[in-house]
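Reminder to self: tokens first, then the designed residues, so the page reads top to bottom the way the pipeline ran.
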């Protein structure tokens, strides 16, 4: 039985004064009453490697959350949020993960672009775009990485020029999550001729439904296609849809990345704990738990999860006081490598059967985004294959170690060619 008392769940009530128990109970009660009926089948759906599952249903669920005031919790009330504290937001994400509620489809808008517009956008941009994010009527994609500028984001070469009151955009983006279902994309591009590296960049808001944009899904190891390559061939957006001044793109882009590693990471860890619990249950049921090597790996995973949570809470406290430094990079290294190792552990627990594809007819998954022909995978095969990417996306292990070395340890910067 899941404990209902926060102290029993390992939550330090001293960090969350002001009705924490009541707030958590309201979240838990609402989820229990609403993740039912037409939404019941969405429980646990749409996670990493399974983004194709029930997309239309999960979009409807997100809009239901919005109608009930459970989106954009940390936003100021004047922009449609609740002005929730960090503690309340942590509790929401924790309860959401414990309820096995479906993966959200509006993360890029709600958690990344929305806070960025609040921090850097004009009043007109906030008025135009924040309501559509808050009520989940407009979805966003992220146009950062390029074939020659993945981990080295400052090397972007996509260009934008002002022509007759509009930005004309040319170039290519890659690994563009959800571009095939979004209406808008925020694009980091070069707006000053002859500029290089961090200088001369712009952060543009661009409509995706136009003749100058081509979106091509990229098939992942799991057979699904969450992300895409996007081509801009004289694509356009209005002159006033640049966030910040021309040349401020790097500052805005880095501000957005700070929001990326926010309180939702603690909810993510609750999801990790549920995955570990299922791996342990599998090991007990098939006898793998009798293997001392498997038991040692399970214990290591259990300890790692608790170290990860302690560090995440310390980092969030530092963010709240403006002193996080490079700790977000430490967190990224921790969870990415832990999750990859869990995928490997799950395969080891299964043994030889992990190499056999399940009967594709055993589960009729509603794939209503895109459906490349593929072999259907089971839960653990998807976990193993997808978590290979955890150490790459959102900043690769190598990039995170460079950040830690330079910004935390004060070591000399890596020489550039």
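Designed residues (417 positions):
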């Amino acid at each position: 039985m899941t404990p209902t008392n926060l102290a029993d769940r390992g939550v330090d009530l001293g960090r969350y004064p002001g009705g924490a128990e009541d707030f958590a109970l309201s979240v838990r009660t609402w989820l229990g009453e609403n993740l039912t009926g037409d939404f019941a089948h969405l429980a646990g759906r749409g996670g990493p490697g399974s983004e194709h599952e029930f997309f239309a249903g999960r979009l409807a669920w997100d809009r239901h959350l919005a109608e009930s005031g459970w989106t954009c919790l940390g936003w100021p009330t004047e922009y449609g949020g609740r002005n929730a504290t960090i503690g309340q937001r942590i509790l929401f994400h924790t309860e959401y993960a414990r309820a096995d509620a479906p993966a959200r489809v509006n993360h890029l808008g709600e958690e990344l672009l929305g806070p960025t517009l609040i921090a850097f956008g004009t009043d007109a941009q906030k008025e135009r775009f924040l309501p559509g994010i808050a009520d989940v009527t407009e979805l966003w994609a992220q146009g950062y990485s390029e074939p020659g500028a993945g981990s080295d984001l400052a090397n972007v070469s996509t260009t934008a020029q002002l022509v007759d009151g509009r930005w004309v955009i040319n170039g290519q983006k890659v690994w563009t999550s959800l571009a095939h279902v979004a209406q808008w994309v925020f694009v980091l591009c070069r707006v000053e001729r002859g500029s290089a590296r961090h200088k001369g960049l712009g952060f543009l808001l661009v409509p995706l439904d136009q003749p100058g944009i081509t979106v091509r899904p990229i098939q992942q190891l799991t057979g699904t296609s969450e992300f895409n390559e996007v081509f801009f061939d004289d694509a356009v957006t209005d002159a006033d849809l640049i966030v910040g001044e021309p040349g401020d793109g790097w500052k805005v882009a880095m501000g957005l990345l700070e929001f990326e590693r926010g309180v939702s990471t603690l909810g993510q860890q609750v999801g990790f704990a549920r995955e570990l619990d299922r791996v342990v249950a599998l090991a007990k049921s098939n006898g793998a738990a009798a293997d001392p090597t498997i038991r040692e790996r399970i214990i290591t995973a259990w300890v790692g999860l608790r170290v990860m949570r302690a560090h995440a809470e310390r980092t969030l406290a530092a963010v709240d006081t403006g002193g996080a430094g490079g700790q977000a990079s430490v967190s990224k290294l921790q969870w990415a490598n832990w999750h990859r190792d869990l995928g490997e552990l799950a395969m080891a627990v299964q043994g030889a059967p992990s190499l056999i594809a399940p009967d594709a007819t055993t589960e009729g998954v509603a794939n209503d985004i895109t459906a490349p022909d593929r072999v259907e995978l089971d839960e653990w095969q998807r976990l193993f294959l997808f978590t290979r990417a955890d150490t790459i996306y959102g900043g690769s292990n190598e990039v995170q170690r460079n950040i830690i070395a330079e910004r935390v340890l004060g070591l000399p910067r890596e020489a550039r060619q």
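Residues 144 and 188 are 6 Å apart (CA to CA).
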